[in-house]
Specification:
264 residues; alpha+beta; N-terminal domain of MutM-like DNA repair proteins; Helicase, Ruva Protein, domain 3; four-stranded antiparallel beta sheet; 22% helix; DNA damage; DNA-binding; multifunctional enzyme; zinc
Amino acid sequence: MPEGDSVWQTAHRLHTALAGRVLVRSDLRVPKLATVDLRGHAVESVRSRGKHLLTRFDHGWTLHSHLRMQGSWKVFETGQGWRGGPIHQIRAILANEAYAAVGYRLPVLELLRTADEARVVGHLGPDLLGEDWDPDEALRRLRRAPDRALGEALLDQANLAGIGNVYKSELCFLTGVTPWTPVGAVPDLPRLVGQAQRLLEFNRRKPVRITTGDTRPGRTLWVYGRDRHPCASCGTLIRSAGQGRPGEERITYWCPSCQAGPTP
């Protein structure tokens, strides 16, 4: 599942291409929206809310999409060939005279009134990249379950919206605790929350995600995706294991020397 900074980048690209322009083509290829025609309506804005995308139109309706693990939105100039996957994987086409936004493999696509957006995003915690960012509220939500493993709590979008598996692993490393450490045992939870927001803010306009400060290939992340590679800080081999409820485990990474706390 994409991180919040990647979804923000997608929203930014869509907003740049669509906002303020009237659609000349509308094709929503999911059964419940097959008869919907948005031609003649202008896109007012495209915004991300955590990992959700909200495309708002001038007639009071919002197209809500979520990428999950496999979805993507691509933007092409008029006349440019589409390169995002086979035609049968296209779920949405929104085009104006200058650009076409094409949604591939979108697992979530629905139309709702803009006034009812809370129905799909109201459960989310403060958005790390949103105007509503509130670190105190994020802390309050995290602390509601002090015995919960930190890695699971960070991935819970109802606590704070925007952290995915990459930032989960990286934040635990930077905090010096394993992802299985109970939230209540984290030494400085406010610092972790502040660092989460700064990392996503730092990376939201960058093509390559960086948490180490090192832009060289293979050195941009501390632990994520580096199983059995030496830790850049101490040289110990990075470990990995699944974390989460059965059937919903996500691979997480940690350094056995730099991070204290329980392990699988």
